[in-house]
């Protein structure tokens, strides 16, 4: 028993040290994802013991999946334990929608959606070293890359996740709980080996630990090596992104100059920075070949379109809102699809002589045949020619903003204004700028 008490003190000490290493802004509120099982029960008791000295507010959240006949009993158990500890508990019922996913993945998605709604500074999860080993094996079997092999991180600041038990084995947690006389529930699905994680736990890791007792610790160490390698790849990608400069002229040539592995690394980074999940290897190679080529590219993935046109590379929404015709009455700005139009009084060369008080000036997309002369003495050019000469991607042309006065086109977004509408030298006119789908103002 004395040895168990010592283990208890050691675990508490390690969790205290990990708490001290959280980012400088010490969290005021931690909430435990509390299932009622062994792992989260140990975590809840550890943090309840640590909270008074560390000064944080502690709460718990229990996600009621409704997948087991015991689900109501588990929720009641969690409420009883939290009440005894004086920890506020929120029970959230969810409907698990499989929609083509496995039961494990669907339940996890529903659970994470609930956790993401909490206002706590950190959501504390009870995953431990054995869970990390299962995660690594599962991802390797799916052919993951370095990022996937890094598995779970102790801290995920973006999603406010903290896993203070990630370096502890399940055996250590069980000894801790038994020494403290804790009560927990056993999920009946944990023995169902049709579920991938249970198969890995019982049929792969259990016999592996018999032969190699340090397997969980060694696999944990491997994930840390992978995480370090992934961090270095991210640093390299950030440096390459600064050189390539997406959205600026010449980006495509600068990307072509990179080796294929380095370019793939940069594309993964670009996609992630755009807010989309990484594609599989085959799809990523498809994008790489396209953008290193010469033709126009509009590669759609996860609600985003990654585009190339001439020497430009940019990302835009896969489905931009359809712009509606509108009258300009002198406003400084007007929305236009995924971008906007900006109107500024100016005496500079190229300003347009416009009078929104006297004329009906309408912003709308091209209608029928359109042509315009940009400079006096130069020929009138067709809309397609003007767009080609100005480097406007073909995919944008149907939604390009045009300023009309009756049947006359006075200005085309990204192209410029008509010579016939130019203000005289020294005369105050208007300059119009258009922020396009790529976020660049022209």
Automatic annotation (TrEMBL):
Listed Pfam families: ATP_bind_3, TilS, TilS_C
Its recorded reaction(s) are: cytidine(34) in tRNA(Ile2) + L-lysine + ATP = lysidine(34) in tRNA(Ile2) + AMP + diphosphate + H(+)
Q: What is its main location?
A: cytoplasm
Provide the residue positions that the database annotates as binding ATP. 35-40
Q: What compartments host this protein?
A: Cytoplasm
Q: Does the keyword Transcription apply?
A: no
Residue span, Lysidine-tRNA(Ile) synthetase C-terminal domain: 361-434
Report the EC number(s), separated by commas if there are several. 6.3.4.19
SUPFAM superfamilies named among the record's database cross-references:
Adenine nucleotide alpha hydrolases-like (SSF52402), MesJ substrate recognition domain-like (SSF82829), PheT/TilS domain (SSF56037)
Q: Please name the GO terms that the record assigns under molecular function.
A: tRNA(Ile)-lysidine synthase activity
The record's section on InterPro entries has:
Lysidine-tRNA-synth_C (IPR012796), Rossmann-like_a/b/a_fold (IPR014729), TilS/TtcA_N (IPR011063), tRNA_Ile_lys_synt (IPR012094), tRNA_Ile_lys_synt_N (IPR012795), tRNA_Ile_lys_synt_subst-bd (IPR015262)
| Keyword field | ATP-binding, Cytoplasm, Ligase, Nucleotide-binding, tRNA processing
What family does the entry list?
Belongs to the tRNA(Ile)-lysidine synthase family.
What's this protein's function?
Ligates lysine onto the cytidine present at position 34 of the AUA codon-specific tRNA(Ile) that contains the anticodon CAU, in an ATP-dependent manner. Cytidine is converted to lysidine, thus changing the amino acid specificity of the tRNA from methionine to isoleucine.
Q: Domains: what does the record tell us?
A: The N-terminal region contains the highly conserved SGGXDS motif, predicted to be a P-loop motif involved in ATP binding.
Instruction: Provide the protein name.
Output: tRNA(Ile)-lysidine synthase
């Amino acid at each position: 028993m004395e040895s168990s008490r010592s283990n208890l003190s050691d675990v508490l000490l390690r969790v205290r040290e990990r708490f001290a290493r959280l980012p400088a802004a010490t969290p005021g509120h931690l909430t435990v994802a509390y299932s009622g099982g062994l792992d989260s029960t140990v975590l809840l008791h550890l943090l309840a013991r640590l909270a008074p000295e560390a000064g944080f507010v502690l709460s718990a959240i229990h996600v009621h999946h409704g997948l087991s006949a015991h689900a109501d009993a588990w929720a009641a158990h969690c409420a009883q334990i939290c009440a005894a500890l004086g920890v506020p508990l929120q029970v959230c019922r969810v409907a698990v929608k499989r929609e083509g996913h496995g039961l494990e993945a669907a339940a996890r998605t529903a659970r994470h959606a609930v956790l993401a709604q909490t206002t706590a500074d950190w959501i504390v999860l009870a995953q431990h070293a054995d869970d990390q080993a299962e995660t690594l094996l599962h991802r390797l079997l799916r052919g993951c890359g370095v990022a996937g092999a890094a598995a779970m991180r102790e801290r995920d600041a973006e999603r406010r996740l903290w896993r203070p038990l990630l370096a502890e084995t399940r055996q250590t947690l069980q000894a801790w709980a038994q020494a403290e006389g804790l009560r927990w529930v056993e999920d009946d699905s944990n023995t169902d080996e049709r579920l991938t994680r249970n198969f890995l736990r019982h049929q792969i890791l259990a016999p592996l630990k018999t032969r190699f007792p340090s397997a969980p610790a060694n696999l944990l160490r491997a994930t840390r090596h992978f995480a370090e390698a992934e961090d270095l790849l991210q640093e390299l990608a950030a440096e390459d992104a600064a050189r390539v400069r997406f959205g600026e002229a010449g980006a495509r040539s600068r990307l072509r100059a990179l080796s294929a592995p380095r370019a793939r690394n940069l594309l993964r980074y670009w996609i992630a920075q755009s807010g989309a999940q990484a594609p599989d290897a085959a799809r990523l190679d498809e994008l790489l070949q396209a953008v290193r080529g010469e033709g126009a590219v509009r590669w759609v993935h996860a609600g985003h379109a990654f585009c190339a046109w001439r020497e430009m590379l940019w990302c835009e929404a896969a489905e931009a809102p359809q712009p509606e015709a509108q009258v300009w009455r002198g406003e400084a700005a007007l929305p236009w699809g995924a971008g906007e139009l900006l109107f500024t009084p100016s005496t500079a060369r190229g300003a347009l002589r416009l009078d929104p008080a006297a004329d009906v000036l309408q912003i709308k997309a091209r209608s029928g045949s359109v042509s315009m002369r940009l400079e006096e003495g130069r020929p009138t050019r067709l809309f397609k020619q003007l767009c080609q000469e100005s480097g406007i991607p073909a995919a944008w042309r149907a939604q390009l903003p045009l300023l009309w006065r009756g049947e006359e086109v006075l200005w085309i977004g990204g192209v410029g204004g008509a010579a016939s509408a130019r203000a005289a030298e020294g005369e105050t006119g208007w300059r119009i700028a258009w922020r396009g789908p790529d976020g660049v103002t022209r």
